[in-house]
Amino acid sequence: MIQIEKLRKVYRGRGREVTAVDGVDLTVAEGEVFGVLGRSGAGKSTLLRCVNLLERPDEGRVVIGGRDLLALRGGELRRARQGIGMIHQHFGLLGSRTVAGNVAFPLEVMGVPRAERAKRVAELLELVGLTEHAGAYPARISGGQKQRVGIARALAGRPRVLLSDEATSSLDPETTASILALLRDLNRRLGLTVLLITHEMDVVKRICDSAAVMRDGRFTESGPVPELLARPGSELARGLFPLPPAEPRDGSTLIEVTFTGGATGEPFVSALARKYSVDVNILGGAVETVGGERVGRLQLELPGDPPQNAAQLAFLRESGLAVEIKNPDREDAR
Ligand SMILES: Nc1ncnc2c1ncn2[C@@H]1O[C@H](COP(=O)(O)OP(=O)(O)OP(=O)(O)O)[C@@H](O)[C@H]1O
Ligand SMILES: [Mg+2]
Predict the structure, then answer these.
(1) 2, 14, 75, 275: least surrounded by Cβ within 10 Å?
(2) Residues 272 and 316: beta-carbon distance below 8 Å
(3) Choice from 45, 86, 166 to test ligand 1 binding pocket (greatest atom count within 8 A of CB)
(4) Whose CA is nearest to atom 1 of ligand 1?
(5) % of the chain with per-residue pLDDT over 90
(6) pTM of this prediction exceeds 0.85
(7) Does 82 lie in the same domain as 48?
């Protein structure tokens, strides 16, 4: 649905060059929620602005719904861009217009006739749960309600793709949860493909099917969230499940175990302890719901060096768990 290849964007000015996006490849499948996570200055907003051509990339390709956006001009490009909605951190509402007036605005720009416009505005307000506030002005509604207006406005042109630039960053946790639930619901009901950027782990945890971590204009990791969580050394896994710093002791094996889906129901720690008569020491861990799936990470210590635990480690891996050995020096690399 969204396909980005080797995207590069350099800002030039006053003898200074900033490579904001430095060769990003990204595929977002139809109907998927994809999150890009990164610190301030990583290039997230620039990436998003290159996807809807608010910024023209220096290099690369942006293909949405099979159309190469950089090859389009004039009316064709305008129509393609109408198929891409966008929401922002600071909502960007017009203070002089009511809630309904704000949602009507893009429809006016598109030249939708008055009667049809009124009908569409009513539908959109219903969709985001704001029917009762149609006549209110932005100054009189809450942040969460403002973002609902932003979402309704972004959906006015019936886009297939929604881009979200830190849409929940200025909201409190409870309101964030309700906006994320709304986005998830719209994604499911309308089959909307969502590309969102955020610096909040919680956003990824709640609604993303896939995610990428962006740093200095590049993706350092990217893929389906459950897969990233099980990948050794994943920054996303560390962020979602902070474990104590690994301090392997001599004569022991320190491991981090990630389990998803079916494996979460299995009492594998007690099974391991029973089968091999070992005392398993649990040093830390957490189980969370990520993208509607139960995922957990545990830090465990087993007596004996890694080579002595070969059978135990194989048992855990055969049970469908991802196992990372934190003191692998003496174990054959695998
Ligand atoms: N219009 C611009 N002109 C020049 N440099 C820019 C411009 N916009 C962004 N940059 C630079 O590009 C880099 C990436 O900026 P960008 O806004 O994409 O980061 P971000 O990941 O969205 O950060 P934040 O989380 O703070 O929003 C930064 O170094 C920034 O200073
Ligand atoms: Mg930004």
Answers:
(1) 14
(2) yes
(3) 45
(4) 11
(5) 71
(6) yes
(7) yes
Higher-scoring residue by pLDDT: 237, 177:
177
Where is the domain boundary, 179, 204, 229? 229
Same domain, 46 and 156: yes
Residues 91, 201: one domain? yes
Whose Cα sits closest to atom 16 in ligand 1? 43
pLDDT at 31 over 70: yes
Report the distance separating Cα 156 and Cα 123, nearest Å: 10
Q: Which domain holds residue 302?
A: 241-330
Burial class (CB in 10 A: 0-12, 13-18, 19+), 66: exposed
Q: Which ligand is nearest to the CA of 49?
A: 1
Written as one string, the DSSP assignment of 276-328 is HT---EEEEEEEEEETTEEEEEEEEEEES-GGGGHHHHHHHHHTT-EEEESSG
Per residue in 200-213, pLDDT (tens digit) is 988 998 899 999 99
